[in-house]
Write a structure and sequence with these properties.
single chain; 3 domains; globular; eight-stranded mixed beta sheet; 8 strands; about 50% helix; alpha/beta; Helix Hairpins; Histone, subunit A; Rossmann fold; about 325 residues
């Protein structure tokens, strides 16, 4: 097959939408390698709670890869749960990987639900100051003691334009905006170039948005949470037993705080499943809103459980 007319394919969608399975089907048909655009699967030892594809590290002639059914799956299972990771780190690694994949005569496939990563990779990012752990700790303490609204009010006092663009509920973005403003000595809204929010460049890649009907996605999330709960609890117990603090970046990812509450006896298993499902669906709503902005992406709507056939969906994508 000539790879010349092909473009990298990016599969986007909410958590539990089945992106991994479709990406693997596409990789089998195209001879592809997958780049994970997921901020949680990058961590080692976090399996059940991140839905990390089951694979193993294998040494090949081309190097050492995390292989899933024989397919290289990049940017998963590499970071210690104590490490921090951001869109800038993702872009740096992914930009290096793509030409390496083409050089192996393979097709790059990106799959993930972290919209910030997808956007940053394709549209670039503004050059901003790095993270400052002292400022981060101070802001986290404010959020903990006085609430998210107080932190958002602080942002509004130093940069009203940024506060209008960032909702109080998005605590990480609020903290980052305040942090940048302090470090740069001027409002972050004056640093933003706006290019980050441009439409995805369809002349450079093919973009697929997988969207489930809300009630069906909720059922998938609830079912997946229940099925993996015991494994999730076991791996969390092992991590804390090995000295990982409850507030380390890995254990602050979606669902793990609820598992920690369950293990501490603060909530019951049914409550933990219910809380994780609710948090997952709130996140899914934000993901679908984010990806729904891309009018130039191909929308694959799933309106029944029968619609989800990874092999058929992969074939449909190829026929596009």
């Amino acid at each position: 097959m000539s790879l010349q007319p092909l473009k990298p394919i990016t599969l986007m969608g909410a958590n539990a939408s089945g992106k991994t399975e479709i990406a693997l089907e596409l990789a089998r048909r195209l001879g592809g390698e997958i780049i994970s655009a997921d901020s949680k699967q990058i961590y080692k030892s976090l399996e059940a709670g991140t839905a990390k594809p089951h694979g193993s590290w294998t040494k090949t002639e081309a190097g050492k890869f995390y292989l899933v059914d024989g397919i290289p799956y990049h940017m998963v299972d590499t970071l210690n749960p104590r490490a921090t990771y951001d869109a800038g780190s993702f872009v740096k690694e992914a930009k290096k990987l793509v030409p390496e994949i083409w050089a192996r005569r393979k097709v790059p496939l990106m799959a993930g639900g972290t919209g910030m990563y997808v956007q940053a990779f394709w549209n670039g990012m503004d050059i901003l100051p790095g993270a400052d752990p002292v400022i981060r700790a101070e802001l986290a303490a404010v959020a903990e003691s006085r609430g998210r609204e107080a932190l958002h009010a602080e942002l509004a006092s130093i940069d009203p334009a940024a506060a209008l663009r960032i909702p109080p509920g998005n605590i990480q973005r609020v903290m980052r905006a305040i942090e940048i403003t302090r470090l740069a000595g001027r409002p972050v809204s004056q640093i933003w170039s706006g290019r980050f929010f441009n439409a995805l460049p369809v002349h450079e890649g093919k973009f697929i948005f997988i969207k489930w009907q809300k009630d069906l996605l909720a059922e998938r999330v609830k079912r997946r949470t229940a099925e993996r709960f015991e494994q999730w609890a076991a791996e969390t117990r092992e991590l804390t037993g090995n000295g990982y603090a409850a507030d380390c970046p890995g254990l602050k990812t979606l669902g793990y705080p609820q598992i920690l509450d369950y293990l501490a006896g603060r909530i019951t298993k049914p409550d933990a499943i219910r809380f994780i499902t609710a948090a997952s669906m709130a996140y899914a709503k934000r993901q679908n809103t984010w990806f729904g902005r891309y009018r130039n992406a191909t929308l694959l709507e799933l309106k029944s459980f029968k619609d989800y056939d990874p092999a058929a969906l992969a074939e449909k994508i190829l026929n596009l």
